[in-house]
Amino acid sequence: MIRTYAVFFLAVCFLLMPLKSESSDETKVFFSSASLVRGDLILITIHADLLEKPLAFWMKKEIPLIYSQANASWRGFIAADLKQKPGVYKVVVQLPSSGFEKEFYIRVNDRDYGVRKLKLDPKKVDLDAEALNRAGNEAAIVNELWTADCQLPLWDDGFLMPVDKKIVGTFGRRSIINKRKRAPHTGVDISGKSGDPVKAIHNGTVMLVADHFFTGNSLYLNHGGCIISMYFHLDKILVKNGDKVEKGQIIGLVGATGRVTESHLHWGVRINGARVNPLTLIKLSGKWDE
Ligand SMILES: [Zn+2]
User: Fold this and answer.
1) Span 1-23, pLDDT tens digits
2) Which of 91, 194, 221, 225 could be 104's S-S partner, Cβ–Cβ 3.0 to 4.6 Å?
3) Which residue from 200, 213, 193, 217 is spatially nearest to 269, judged by alpha carbons?
């Protein structure tokens, strides 16, 4: 009797085992590239059912994943901060419903983004005690934003350029201001006359509207899915804290407020806290449903 049970048990095991490994093999994970440079992002695609929501982690943070109907797969962004140390970093993909778990390795490479040399009013560079105190307080307020609740995405397709004009300042350049090394450029500068309209790059919620020492009239949008966009040196801001905005909505006007030499839009993006090139977000999100 015991032997019959044992045979039956083994038979069931053999029947189940191939089924289980087959379902694991079906979970295909793709990356738009096996490597990225610091300050950039790539796309992760996980072929899994809508009801089989996978989990993915990169540098110990959960990557928000969004289901793409057109692709029948889950997608998200893997982003490396501008100051990320080059090296190989692990991505862990899990499917809680089937127990599937697999590790992948993505290389972050260094990149020489070049240098920008600026001459500014020394008062705006070598700050007195009062300005230093002000800038410090403002930095603390902005730093709070990166830990805001961000999982639920308010978007599921391509992001827009905020101003459709020439890029006059590229992302990532080291800065030398009045012959001294300063923080690198963490956004892109788009040319614009004072008063030109600035569009929301996607649906979002206004996180912060402020007049800051360096960035002038500044606006921060939370798009969910841990994507935050920011717009600096604005002449006017047309929305207020907590407002819901739609993709393409005019949220402000180009200006020359804060520490600038001439009117332009400084536009930055953070993905899961990482400072990345906003132009790559435009490019990759445009392929969301491909
Ligand atoms: Zn800038």
Assistant:
1) 445 555 444 444 444 443 433 34
2) 91
3) 200
The residue whose two tokens read 């009117």 is: 263
The pLDDT, as a whole number, for residue 3 is 54
Ligand 1 center to residue 44 CA distance, Å? 29
* From-to residues of CATH 2.70.70.10 in the chain: 115-285
SS3 state at 157: coil
84 pLDDT above the threshold of 80: yes
Question: 2-109 in CATH: which number?
Answer: 2.60.40.10
102 C-alpha to ligand 1 centroid (Å): 39
Rounded to the nearest whole angstrom, what is the distance from the C-alpha of residue 125 to the centroid of ligand 1?
Answer: 15
- Which residues, in sequence order, are CB contacts of 267 under 8 Å at separation 6+? 162, 163, 187, 188, 189, 190, 201, 229, 230, 231, 232, 278
